[in-house]
Each structure stands twice: as C-alpha cells, then as structure tokens.
Write a structure and sequence with these properties.
By secondary structure, the chain is mostly helical. The protein has a domain of 299 residues. The chain is built from 17 helices and four strands. A two-stranded antiparallel ribbon has the order 1-2. It has a two-stranded parallel ribbon with strand order 3-4. It is globular and about 60 Å long. The two termini are 41 Å apart. It is found in: Cytoplasm. It catalyses: a hydroperoxide + L-cysteinyl-[protein] = S-hydroxy-L-cysteinyl-[protein] + an alcohol. It holds the Pfam family PA26.
Length: 430
C-alpha cells in the first residue's frame, strides 16, 4: 500500500522526495475537510481516468484500511451521490481543464442534501490534480507494471528489495520524521496484510452468497436458464458482484493484486485530451498568468480554505524549479533555468496557459521533436506512453535527468489544473 516504486524513482532527487512525501502524507493522512475513506476513493476516481492500476490498487487498499465501505468498490453507481457528483469535474480536470467554469463549482456547492462545502471542494480539487499529475509520473518513469501487457517499464526502479527508497537516504535530506512514518507504514503493511486478505475473502464469500440467492430468485421469476446481463449506463459498467471490477486477493508471492476493470470507476471513458488550439474560440479564451497566477492568487485562496496545503504545494513547486540540471541543459546548449522554463511553459501551453513575457519560439529551439512528443504524451495521455518512446528519447540522458523531466511534468501539470479550478472557485465567490 506504499508508493514504493514512485519513491525509488524520486529518490534520485532526495530534497524533492522529502517535499513530495510531506504533501502526500498531509493530503491523505492529516486533519482536513474530507473523511479519510473519501480521500482514497477520490484518488481512485482520479487515477482511473488515466487507467493507472498502480495508483488505483494502492488507494483501494488504503480505502479499506481507512474503514471504507467495500460496496463502493463495485463502481460509481454504489457510492453516495455527493461523491458521484464529483465525476464531472474529475473528468474535465484530467483532460481539458480549460473547460472548468464557475457553473461547475456552483452546481457542487448549491444548497441540497448532497452539497459540498468550499473547504471540502478545495481539498477534493487538490487531491484530483495531485493524482492526475502523479499518474503522469507513474507512466513516465515506468512504475506502472501491467502484467497483461508483459510488464512494460523500460525505466527499472532501483533494486532496493522491499524498502522504501526514503529509508536508504537518511543522510540525503529526508527528514527523520518521514523515515519514522515510512518505517511505521512498512510494519503496518506487514501486520495488516493477513487481516486485510481474510476480510476481503470473507466479503467475497458473503457477496457470492447474496448473489447466488438473487440469481435463484430471478430464475424463478424469469425462467430457468436465463442469463443475467451486465448493464451499461452512461459509460459506467455495472459489475455483477463486488469482485467483477476488483480482485484484491493475494497471489502466490504474497503480493496483493488489484483492479482488473477500471471502467466501473469512470463515466464517459471516451472523453480525453483535445488540443487546446482546436477549442471553440467563442467558448474558451487563453489563460493569461498575468491575470491569475499561483503566486498572487491561487496560493492564498487554497491556503485559506485548506489550511497549510498552500505552503506545502508552494514548497514542492519551488523545489522542482531549484533542482540542478546543468548536464541536461548543457546537452541542449543553454542555461539550466532556460531549459527548465522551456519545458514548464511548453506543458502549460498545451493546457492553454500563456506567459506574456515569454518568447514561445524558444520552445522549438530548446526541445527537440522526440522530447516534445514524449512530454506531450506523458502530460496529456500518459496511459499511451510506451517503451518505444523511452528508447527513442532517453538515450542522451542520465537516469536522474529522465526523472527530473518527469518531475517537471508532474508539477507543471498539477499547477495547470489548480490554476483553472481555483480561478473558477474565485469567480464563483466573487
């Protein structure tokens, strides 16, 4: 249930890893507006948009450990309407964040039995953006291991056994508190695995029993031999039982296998990224950072509605900007800051965010074609990242530089989603 492969990759940049783990821990495990089980279910919904089994499986286990209702794992049709109403903003933020409007915010906040508070919604938005961006990193660094596709992942994690990378970098800027938390989680994972496995198997047996009784009753009503159909409504597949979409049972190696069908966590699965340049000109305008920026607007709003998260996010944005990349930039024939800004602004440009003080001709000069193809794929549709793209692009970079590029993608994408969502919330409040 830990982000083991992710922390191993981020461990090439331990200062950033320290900042990332603090944010991850705060979002998921510290005091905040949302219940703990809902936080993990929102993470499942976000990761499913990009078919990221690695993150879905992680949060399925943590959802159950937090006391979540196993019935929710049957899909969106089995969760409370309040949580299900988040699906639209999840879909838009993941693929076309420029479509977010104050009307979407108003719909969620309107007075009703299932309305969200502003604080809850801000927490949810940060979680969605965090998990969408983390899915890009997972695919970009090859952490997603899908046995059905032959275990893709050209960038192999470091061989560190079952330890979290953070445990091996005590002298490299990882705080002792994070090490303590990580070791405790490792111990908790070992102690809880058997009980979790027994619980899931018990639920499975109970569910099978109820399903058998239901089928017998239906056969009596409709006639012997009639098969039960699996209905599809609005792109969401209704699982016939709890484990049609999820099978978190242990395999022979003691590992927990997870989601086999992510469709039950999604609606409108065909909705995906579309080039911003193809947008309806009358519907959407270019987002100008001079009018609404993280530093001047987003930071203060998010920090006011969800205490301290703004400081953690800001530290993470600054940390990735401060990472050393002199060798990487030297290969491109420019200063490190120029190269990093070119990548960052290129990512924001794909989401319709522009900087008036930047010459976008630099992007084509700094970033070769295969680098741009790779960045766009990992940013906009990470699930399409494949080993051929790794092979064609990564040859000239060190492994730590490859991870650095993916960290830039992660943070630039997350900030882009937050800017659109927080601007819409601001417009609603005004």
């Amino acid at each position: 249930g830990r982000l083991e492969a992710v922390t191993q990759q981020m461990g090439y940049h331990p200062q950033y890893l320290d900042s990332f783990l603090k944010t991850q821990h705060y979002l998921m495990h510290m005091d905040g507006p949302l219940p703990f089980d809902c936080r993990h279910y929102i993470a499942i919904m976000a990761a499913a948009r990009h078919q990221c089994r690695y993150l879905v499986n992680l949060h399925v286990l943590q959802f159950l450990r937090a006391g979540g209702d196993p019935q929710w794992l049957r899909g969106l049709e089995f969760i409370p309407p309040k949580l299900r109403n988040l699906n639209e903003i999840n879909k838009i933020l993941a693929h076309r964040p420029w479509l977010i409007t104050k009307e979407h915010i108003e719909k969620l906040l309107k007075i009703s039995e299932w309305s969200w508070s502003l604080a809850e919604l801000v927490h949810a938005v940060v979680l969605l953006a965090h998990c969408h961006a983390l899915a890009s990193f997972v695919f970009g660094c090859g952490c997603e291991q899908d046995e059905g596709l032959g275990g893709r992942g050209s960038l192999k994690p470091l061989s560190l056994g079952n330890q979290c990378f953070c445990e091996n970098t005590a002298g490299n800027n990882c705080s002792q508190e994070l090490l303590r938390i990580n070791r405790k989680r490792s111990l908790d994972s070992c102690m809880e695995l058997d009980s979790l496995r027994e619980r899931m198997q018990r639920i499975h047996v109970e569910t099978e029993g109820r399903e058998e009784l239901r089928l017998v009753q239906q056969d009596r009503e409709e006639g012997e031999g009639q098969e039960v159909e699996v209905g599809v409504q609005g792109g969401t597949e209704h699982c016939s039982d709890l484990f049609a979409g999820l099978s978190p049972l242990a395999d022979t190696d003691g590992e927990v296998t997870g989601a086999t069908n992510l469709a039950c966590y999604m609606q409108d699965p065909d909705f995906g990224y579309q080039d911003f340049s193809r947008r309806d000109e009358d519907q959407t305008q270019v987002f100008r950072v001079q009018d609404y920026s993280w530093e001047d607007h987003g930071f203060s709003l998010v920090n006011r509605l969800y205490s301290d998260i703004g400081h953690l996010l800001d530290e993470k944005f600054r940390m990735v900007d401060g990472l050393q990349s002199s060798a990487m930039a030297k290969r491109q024939g420019c200063e490190p800051s120029v190269f990093k800004r070119g990548i960052w602004n290129y990512i924001h440009c794909m989401f319709g965010i522009r900087y008036d003080d930047y010459d976008y001709a630099e992007v084509n000069q700094l970033l070769e074609r295969m680098l741009k193809v790779y960045i766009k794929t990992v940013t906009c549709y990470p699930e399409k990242t494949n080993s051929e793209m790794f092979d064609r692009f990564w040859k000239q970079f060190k492994h730590s530089e490859k991870v650095h590029v993916n960290l830039l993608i992660l943070e630039a994408r997350m900030q882009a989603e937050l800017l659109y969502a927080l601007q819409a919330i601001t417009q609603y409040m005004i």
